[in-house]
Hints:
Chain A is built from no helices and 11 strands. Chain A has strands at residues 5-7, 10-13, 19-24, 31-37, 44-50, 53-57, 64-68, 74-78, 87-94, 103-104, 108-112.
Amino acid sequence: ETGVTQSPTHLIKTRGQQVTLRCSSQSGHNTVSWYQQALGQGPQFIFQYYREEENGRGNFPPRFSGLQFPNYSSELNVNALELDDSALYLCASSLAGSTGELFFGEGSRLTVL
Amino acid sequence: GESVGLHLPTLSVQEGDNSIINCAYSNSASDYFIWYKQESGKGPQFIIDIRSNMDKRQGQRVTVLLNKTVKHLSLQIAATQPGDSAVYFCAETIGANSKLTFGKGITLSVRP
């Protein structure tokens, strides 16, 4: 158990809808990163949040956005869902300035129909 | 573009044998490498890491080797157990931050 919790675990949406995924980081961790993992692929970096601000972004369009709250928990929002957004969304927490070891949650499985 | 890749998609080994999982990386600027294990239905789990100023690092039953000359990373698992069955990913980054670049993964299957 990593102490990183994500919700919901599974959800189904239709094209054009919006979705919000939530993550609670491990106690003491102040940095949250989000990754998208398509079936049979490795995770791809979406963005990272530190001190409630985006601190690094991967190759994802602006309809992927996020928030980090004072308690370090985080949300991932995706607008105008597309079929290709179907994936496992992973949240990982870490401590800024640490060696880079990330603690992943078990993910939110999003299916877009 | 830069990428991290694995040579083989699947690896089947006999229980008790040693396993070797290989990975090639192409970003010469990467200076920190990590191996993750992902079991079905779970998130990736950290196994071991290595910095670019090292060529070998050992953990409990696992060893990571780094060859910067040919940009190659390997994970060795001693006395492979059924619980080692999972998908293994190598990942790289620059400056030990959270923006990891993962390879596609290799499935390790342990035969009893």
